[in-house]
Design goal:
The chain has 179 residues and is α/β, with parallel strands linked by helices. It is built from five helices and eight strands, in the order H-E-H-E-H-E-H-E-H-E-E-E-E. It has a single domain, classed as 3-Layer(aba) Sandwich (Rossmann fold). The longest helix has 14 residues.
Length: 179
């Protein structure tokens, strides 16, 4: 695992051994960011199921200003901290050590990019996107990127958002919602 492109491109990322997290492969990560960018001119990103932190780090590497990473697993939190240190841009990252649903109650400000890569067994994307919208946490031009198992069928519309792009990469499906 590595940062695919941008300021930190090529730098290695640590991942958690075992089945606690399911890191996005470099191929899927590169394809995902090519779908939505591939580069950004600032903005704020929310990674609600951070795992190793690789997606948020990729977003910062490609030009986002700041990232909020949410992770409940203690071992994964340690990996995220190590990966953030590797960037030497500590001020760009905030790690919330809690589950996604609790974090939704505490978040403030607006996000320009939301990354939802929940564990395959816990698909709560529809409810979480709706809650983010109801709590006014989403910028007008927000992109919501969902990575799921390829067999998961997300709805055409969630709240005020519709599917903009959707592609399958191996066992993963990437769905991008916009207003």
């Amino acid at each position: 695992m590595r940062v695919v492109a941008g300021e930190f491109g090529g730098r290695p990322l640590k991942t958690l051994a075992g089945r606690t997290t399911r890191p996005t492969t470099d191929k899927v990560k590169g394809a995902m960011f090519n779908m939505i960018g591939p580069y950004f001119e600032g903005g704020r990103v929310l990674d609600l199921f951070a795992g190793s932190g690789g997606l948020a780090i990729e977003a910062i590497s490609r030009g986002m200003d700041s990232a909020v990473l949410v992770e409940k697993d203690r071992k994964a939190q340690q990996i995220i901290e190590e990966n953030i240190k590797m960037t030497q841009a500590l001020a760009a990252f905030t790690l919330l050590r809690m589950d996604a649903n609790r974090a939704l109650q505490q978040l403030t400000g607006k996000f320009d990019l939301v990354l939802l890569d929940p564990p395959y067994a816990e698909e709560e994307i529809v409810r979480q996107v709706t809650e983010l919208e109801e709590r006014a946490l989403l910028a007008q031009e927000v992109m919501i990127v969902c990575e799921t198992d390829r067999a998961v069928d997300l709805p055409e519309e969630i709240s005020n958002f519709g599917i903009w792009k959707q592609k399958i990469y191996g066992i993963s499906k990437v769905t991008v919602y916009v207003r």
